[in-house]
Amino acid sequence: MKKFFSMLLALVMLLALAGCGGNDSAPAQDQGGASDAGQTQQGGDSGEAGDSAASLEDGIGDYHIGIVTGSVSQSEDDRRGAEAFQAKYGEDKVTLAIYPDNFTEELETTIQTIVNMSDDPLMKAVIVNQSIPGTTEAFRLIKERRPDILCIAGEAHEDLPEIGSASDLVCNNDFVSRGYLIIRTAHELGADTFVHISFPRHMAYETMSRRVAVMEEACKEFNMEFVLETAPDPTSDVGIPGAQAYILENVPAWVQKYGENAAYFCTNDAHTEPLLKQLVKYGGYFIEADLPSPLMGYPGALGLDLTEEAGDFEKILAKVESTISATTTDSGVSGANRFGTWAYSYGYTLSAGLAEHAKNVINGVSEITDMDAVAAALNVYSPKAQWNGAGYTNATTGVKSDNVFLIYQDTYVMGNPGRFMGNADVEIPEKYYTVS
Question: How far, in Å, are 33, 276, 295, 322, 326 from residue 303 at the CA level?
Fold first, then answer.
């Protein structure tokens, strides 16, 4: 392939020289090199030479990109995002793999699944989303074998400084900024109380324990009551059915206790659907899910069939929004302007967007740790939403990481009409980055 492209490039240069009639003063030929590709992309040059450079930047050249996700049964949005990227650039350029569903007990298989990507001599980037336990070790092994491969972690489950030491880039949902913004949004919508629902296993994670601490601190700033409620862990003996039954049974009592102007947040996906179902019926606010998406909890809670809208998040959101806006609680309160989400699935966008960013880095048009470039790549798959983020700050040392990013999408509140809250433009008070 390299010989073919060399011959093709030589032929193009000969034809260009012939077209210039031997005129050595033509400046376009001096500006068409690879080092000026970024200028061409931004409109610095025009004509066929510029178009050729832009097309090389936009596509995948003589290299491969690999994406590792969970299965459809465990993390469908993550997988669908990987499939969307593969469909865009071709199965011959993009390799997909799935780590085991029971990854906590199949650690060696998980590690090997990721490392196997480096067996491909044309592999130049490996993205893992979600980056479950074992990803750090897998990336270290890849770097030992193939230091030329970009290793990118999406939504890491492991200690952020640790996985950051083995990765070129780590992107997690911004548990600090979101902790503040979720409370701020609830306050703006009219909530006077915030109810946080979780269990001990989740509260042992740094990301979740720091976020709840930020939420509690933000409630003080906005004069809101902060409440902690505990629900069963779906991985415990009661399982998912028991955990969901607990939510269904307790929400009516919570609404009676805290009133219809309380906002609710749960840290577990399995709790989300029953929580939404009861809030629609009994009253309350729901700003966004732990890992937000129009598909997170809403279809099941509202009894929606989204077969025709599958894969089109704008249509999915429109259907969810119209249904929410048409609902009323038992006391007659409309669901409009009380329920929110991210307009585009976080998992879907992260899989596809991080792969898009890797492509741009390999093509030389982006730097790996450029937050603006990461946001632009995510926007390819979430065109009507804004993203923001910041480097991860160690709450103990105050040191900010240069390759671990905490990112978030603007919150969309459903209503007549719905609206983005402008959260991507809100400046987070500096004190919240060290709350623990």
Answer: 56, 12, 12, 13, 14
pTM for the full predicted model: 0.79
- Pairing mode of beta strands 150-156, 169-173: parallel
H, E, C per residue of 274-287? HHHHHHHHHCCEEC
Residue 219 CB-density burial (10 A; 0-12 exposed, 13-18 middle, 19+ buried): buried
Residue 180, classed as helix, strand or coil, is helix
Query: Collapsing DSSP states into helix, strand and coil, what is residue 380?
Result: coil
pLDDT given at position 393: 85
Token pair for residue 347?
Answer: 């998992």
Q: Which tokens sit at 132? A: 């479950």
How many whole angstroms separate alpha carbon 217 and alpha carbon 22? 71
Distance of CA 390 to CAs 26, 352, 424, Å?
Answer: 45, 20, 11
pLDDT at 64: 98
Cβ pair 171, 154 in contact under 8 A: yes
Whether the Cβ atoms of residue 362 and residue 150 lie closer than 8 Å to each other? yes
How long, in residues, is the chain?
A: 436
Under a CB-based contact definition with an 8 Å cutoff, are residues 265 and 197 in contact? Answer: yes
Q: What is the DSSP letter of 427?
A: P
In the chain, what is the straight-line distance between the N-terminal and C-terminal CA atoms, in Å? 53
The alpha carbon torsion through 314, 316, 321, 327 (nearest 10 deg) reads 170
Residues 432/218, Cβ–Cβ less than 8 Å: yes
**Would you call 402 helix, strand, or coil by DSSP?**
strand
Question: Which is nearest to 390 in space by CA: 175, 152, 127?
Answer: 175
Query: Among all chains, which residue has been given the structure tokens 């000026």?
Result: 36
pLDDT digits (tens, 9 = 90+) for 152-167: 999 998 989 999 999 9
